[in-house]
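Reagents: none. Just compute today. ABC transporter substrate-binding protein.
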Amino acid sequence: MTKRKGIVVLFALLMVFLAACSGGNTSSNPGTDTQSNNSSDTETNKSDDQSGASVELRVAWWGGQARHDMMNALFDKFEEKFPHITVVREFGTENQFVEKVTTQAAGGNAPDVVQTSSFFLNDFVARNIHMELDALVDSGDIDLSDFIVHDVDGGKVDDKLYMISLGHNITGIIHNTEMFNKAGVPLPQNGWTWDEYIQTLKDLQKSLGSEAWASEDEGGT
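Predicted 3D structure written out:
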């Protein structure tokens, strides 16, 4: 078996997606962390304005301050291009995110667009939170021509598309060089097999004893 495996601390970093979400009304939901950025009505960029009617679009995501800053900058640019659309921004911590969205959806007040993850995609689809996106792709309203097939397929359930990739991460390997040196065990190299990974952990554990575990258990992810 030649699949690579990280050691000592293994972070399974999942792909994060931006997903269209079926919702009720478009008003801001009380009790959520919401930042609204109201764009003034202007005559600029009217070539991009299909109707001219004012639209309020609720978008929800989780993350730290760096992600908040990035998303706010992105939606500021979006509002500049589409001045008739106001993006109401709802964000908070990942721990509270799923419960918040499922509660909103149950009350018919889910955001219009919501960040999601492969961790809970199937559950969201089963709860009828996510909208199928295939028709929008077929019509050309969503352009996936620059996406690789693996990123597109990652957003599907039962061969139907519900998520569009916002970006993706890779499995990370973090090791404690001091512990390796103390144990006299060679440092990790690219190209490890599962058998080599397991043997390395056994060699490390002999040196560590009860001081620490040779690897974190990320089997659940």
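The chain is about 30% helix and 20% strand.
Action item: order primers for follow-up constructs.
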